[in-house]
Write a structure and sequence with these properties.
By secondary structure, the protein is α+β, with helices and mostly antiparallel strands. 43% of the residues lie in helices and 14% in strands. The strands form three sheets. It has a five-stranded antiparallel sheet. It has a three-stranded antiparallel sheet with strand order 6-8-9, with helices on one face. Helix 4 packs parallel to helix 10 and helix 8 crosses helix 11. This is Aminoglycoside phosphotransferase domain-containing protein. It comes from Epicoccum nigrum (Soil fungus).
């Protein structure tokens, strides 16, 4: 009996490749019966968009492929009517078909539409001193098979800002100052204008938005909540943190004494922008970049001026939420603390304070509004706790020793905790 079973098993292994061939052939034959949607080539898209502007495409070079094969970023060389050569950037988004309930997929699809709105409608409003790319042309097409084509032609920032931001933590002190000034100017410019955004046209958290409008946010503007790490869109990661046994599980996920919510939930409630402009941050909410890091900026040779790009997650929020990521991921540790050794529990050091004061002063000049130091610090510390919550649930990177030490100090301050509870309860 046993030898017989062995022979059967052996024959089945020999036939397996043949079965696999028939299965694959059948799938190919079935799929080939109907027309397959094909993604437009970067050159075709660029040629179509630039022709209306009087340019002829000469060459296309791939700069990078987007996350999970969702598209490409290419440098376009084109000539005008007088044969003068020009350089442009094409951002072409051709994602796979809609996957219902996939929050990450939905977030990406919506983010590209938000970015297109920013470049088409908001970037032209910025003063020349706040450097961003200019959008020459764009398309946003949704197809019956569930796919879409989104594309933008932007001017090439590298000509004026030739130095690309380096990897995490590698910005020079001069570049840090320029990035901080840019953010303060951006936040300061939009602060008095934030109330002008139509609440009905703000993009909701991904899974809420898809229930309301599907994945077509072409009639929407920017995210209600800028960034991509806020708690409402990171419930899966938060659940993992709840079930984890890390240092941060108990202090961040367990209900605060006398409350039903955890510190993470209270912080999220505090930081949540309001359509009506009310709530704890109503008087201070502005438009934030949403993904501040050295990889998303260029500088001039001296590093004294900077241009940011990648506005997929721009939306309402507190400006200090942008700073939390910048300080952790792109500011050299030596600009935050005096010693290479970071204490386990750390209050605000002089370097950190100077950077925040520089930001405060610039915001005041640009906005014409007062950002009181005590209020700025309160907002800043809450933003740090929120940013740590995301890192603890996703993975740590950057100046993590500094971030963890600062949050240990913040959470150990009973006055801070009491104030947070009071502010959220109002």
């Amino acid at each position: 009996m046993l030898p017989r079973l062995r022979r059967l098993f052996k024959h089945s292994l020999q036939l397996a490749p043949l079965f696999l061939f028939f299965i694959l052939a059948s799938r190919y034959w079935t799929a080939s019966q109907g027309p397959m949607p094909s993604s437009p080539s970067p050159k075709d898209v660029a040629s179509s968009l630039l022709a209306d502007k009087g340019y002829e495409v000469e060459s296309v070079s791939l700069l990078q492929s987007l996350w999970a094969g969702y598209g490409q970023i290419c440098r376009i060389s084109a000539t005008d009517a007088s044969d003068e050569s020009h350089s442009f950037i094409l951002k072409l988004i051709t994602p796979p078909p809609t996957r219902a309930g996939d929050e990450g997929h939905t977030r990406k699809i919506l983010s590209y539409q938000v970015e297109q709105y920013f470049y088409s409608h908001l970037a032209p409003q910025l003063p020349a001193s706040i450097h961003v790319a200019k959008c020459l042309a764009s398309i946003n097409q949704h197809h019956s098979d569930g796919t879409s084509t989104t594309a933008m032609i932007l001017n090439d920032l590298k000509k004026e800002f030739p130095v690309a931001g380096e990897k995490r933590g590698a910005l020079s002190p001069v570049q840090v100052g320029a990035a901080l000034d840019w953010l303060a100017s951006f936040h300061g410019f939009w602060w008095p204008r934030a109330e002008e955004f139509d609440g009905d046209k703000l993009v909701l958290p991904p899974l809420e938005e898809v229930k309301e409008d599907g994945q077509d946010a072409s009639k929407k503007t920017v995210w209600l909540n800028g960034g991509y790490t806020y708690l409402a869109t990171r419930q899966k990661e938060y659940s993992n943190l709840v079930d984890d046994d890390s240092e941060w599980t108990q202090p961040l996920t367990q209900p605060v004494s006398g409350q039903t919510q955890s510190i993470s939930e209270l912080v999220a409630a505090f930081l949540s922008p309001s359509v009506s402009g009310t709530g704890p941050i109503g008087d201070y909410q502005t438009l934030i970049h949403g993904d501040v890091k050295s990889e998303n900026l260029f500088t001039i040779q001296s590093g004294e001026e900077v241009a940011f790009y990648d506005f997929q997650y721009t939306g309402l929020g507190l400006g200090v939420c942008d700073l939390a990521k910048l300080f952790t991921c792109s500011v050299p540790l030596g600009m935050l603390v005096e010693s290479e050794y970071v204490d386990d529990v750390l209050t605000m050091q002089e370097g950190e304070k100077k950077l925040l004061q520089r930001y405060q002063e610039k915001v005041k000049i640009v906005s014409g509004k007062e950002y009181e130091w005590d209020m700025l610090v309160q907002h800043w510390e809450i933003a740090l706790v929120d940013w740590l919550r995301f890192q603890a649930s996703w993975g740590f990177w950057g100046n993590t020793e500094w971030l963890e030490a600062r949050v240990r100090s913040i959470l150990g301050d009973e006055q801070w905790r009491s104030t947070l509870v009071t502010m959220v309860g109002k």
